[in-house]
């Protein structure tokens, strides 16, 4: 009877684990990143009680990153600043990423030819990121693209590896990246980049509420979480912002 009980328990655990993996393809640190993911991973109640305690009471901070997929400094900024900041204070951010960077485009019939700073593979990576942004909802596409930026593999291999982890429709994304539709989507990224005022001089290039200055760039590269916290005008801020608050004045008021 004891053996039967153990067997049933093992089967039940395996069944629960398998059922969860079918519907929840996200790592635990992302389970509360959106209500949709929380529902898939069956942790809505836990997230509501422990993570969804901050509701923005001010305008979101608009932060845009202009980058190219294989630029070493872009990868570093993505991994060391942007992703940690989004995890910590994403609730008060309106994040936009524009994968094009220092590329150049020329018209070729009905399509565009792209010449990328770090070679043809970078053009492929830019197209994959662009198609992921189109087919996946924010915030779901961001962890997938972060996974690719963190990888040292070529963009197609990285997409195939990262896709199943984050529930990305990899086949559709890769098909898009190799199509005239994806080509036109990337042209839209080029238009956004070329419309920058002032025009970008390097990547990563960031704007905060539509503004770029060298000072803002340096602050973002040094501590993006701090910059977002400092910029946000709401009275209720995420817990991650508390360490940046100025201490109360040490004075004896009457």
TrEMBL record:
Leader sequence segment: 1-21
Keywords per UniProt: Disulfide bond, Glycoprotein, Secreted, Signal
Signal keyword on record: yes
Segments forming domain Saposin A-type: 17-57
InterPro entries (UniProt xref): Interferon-induced_GILT, SAP_A
GO cellular component terms given for this protein: extracellular region
Pfam family membership, one: SapA
Subcellular location: Secreted
GO molecular function: oxidoreductase activity, acting on a sulfur group of donors, disulfide as acceptor
Similarity section: Belongs to the GILT family.
Protein name, entry field: Saposin A-type domain-containing protein
Taxonomic source organism: Patella caerulea
The organism's taxonomic lineage, starting at the top: Eukaryota, Metazoa, Spiralia, Lophotrochozoa, Mollusca
